[in-house]
Amino acid sequence: MEITSNIPFVVGNILAKFRELDNPETVSRAAAVAVLPELHYRIHTEGKKTNGSAIGTYSNSYLRLRQRKPYNRTSDPDVIASLTRQLEDSYVLKATENGYTIDNIGNTIRGDSKTKTERLEEQYGEIWALTEREKEITQLVAQNTAIALMNA
């Protein structure tokens, strides 16, 4: 009597799943995709820094500039890091050696060595680092992605 086994197939399948978990395209990208709308909303709609406080208040002169054409912004003095929408509309996912990060391709200032985000953080404090809630979102997405992959 000959006995056959599917152990090599099962082990191979499990190893393939582990390799997929190690692939930054799988878990890291899913976490970055999930947190991007949260980050965008916190900064450009709520006007909140990483610590949860308001980013700041626009000066009266800058507020008047924001209300003129072509910007046509509201009279709300809360800083939301948006005038031309170039900064808030230019977020991209960027592959790194260790996974994915959120980058901003509309972040340069012509003739300046510093970026818009660097200037804003110099003026108002830490804005673009993830909040504890945003970190929790990335952890949950990473865990759920890993579980789904292992159960597939």
Description:
The protein is mainly alpha-helical and 152 residues long. The chain has one domain (23-151). The chain is built from five helices and two strands, in the order αααββαα. It has a two-stranded antiparallel ribbon. A hairpin with a 2-residue loop joins β1 (91-96) and β2. α2 runs antiparallel to α5. The longest helix is centred in the first third of the chain and has 20 residues, at 27-46. It is elongated and about 90 Å long. The chain starts with 6 loop residues before the first helix and ends with a helix. The relative contact order is 0.18. The model has no long low-confidence stretch (mean pLDDT 86).
Question: Can you lay out the helices and strands and say which pair or pack?
Answer:
Blueprint (H helix, E strand, L loop, with lengths): L6 H16 L4 H20 L13 H8 L23 E6 L2 E6 L11 H9 L7 H20 L1
Antiparallel strand pairs: 1-2
Helix pairs in contact: 2-5
